[in-house]
Amino acid sequence: MTLHEANVLFSIGPLEVTKTVVSMWVLVAVLAIFSFLATRNLKAVPGKLQNAAEMAIEALQGFFGGILGKENMRRYFPLMATFFIFIVVSNYSSLLPGAGSVFAVPTTSLSVTAALAAISFVVVQEEGIRHQGVGGYFKSLMQPMFLCILMLPLNLIEQVVHPVSLSLRLYGNLYGEELAAEQLGGLAAIGLPIVMHVLSLLFCLIQAMVFTMLVSIYLTEALGEEE
What is the pTM of this model? Predict the structure, then answer.
């Protein structure tokens, strides 16, 4: 049995449903339930769940506002926050018992990270063209104008490289971290795995921040507001 076959749980017609897909369904369901419970009965004096949700939203608004600016943050916050929350929750799921065997960690699958990067690529290009117009957007890729013949192909290649680097960075870092923790756990069953898990708490958060920060920067550049 190949690794791919072992990862397939069942099929719906010609579509194969893998552990990764089911794990994503579960994560989305958990996030949806948490969101519903946190917002179903909003109060002026929030309870613990509402307070935790509000603190997380405020922190993310401050993070993205510092990159995108206040107005753009309001427009793109739903997308950027969705990226961040999905990635960080997926990353933290790698710390749960059974990760990699009972269930798959979505962000350790290249297909998942590539899909996230592809979505960001489409949004960046679409918003750049919508904001500047087709002519203005392509003109921005020719700067400085006296080198336009050279800069246009280089900048077009850069736009394609962005999603590739995003997907490979997130996948490689998470997959590598998971593999390193597994190998170190085999070398020292006591002590070292605990240290690795503590470091993973920070590492998983940083990877979500890096991904969304880069997407925010690419988006700001596409809008012509890098100044």
Answer: 0.83
Low-confidence ranges of the chain (pLDDT < 70): 1-6, 10, 145-148, 178-197, 225-227
Q: What one-letter code names the amino acid at 85?
A: I
Reference 169, options 227, 87, 224; nearest CA is: 87
Phi, psi of 181 (to 5 degrees): -65, -40
Structure tokens at 125: 């290009």
> Are the C-beta atoms of 92 and 206 separated by less than 8 Å?
no
- Which tens digit of pLDDT belongs to each residue from 49-83? 888 888 889 999 999 999 998 889 999 999 999 99
Q: Which of 105, 96, 111 is nearest to 175 (CA)?
A: 105
CA distances from 109 to 48, 101, 169, 194 (A): 34, 14, 12, 24
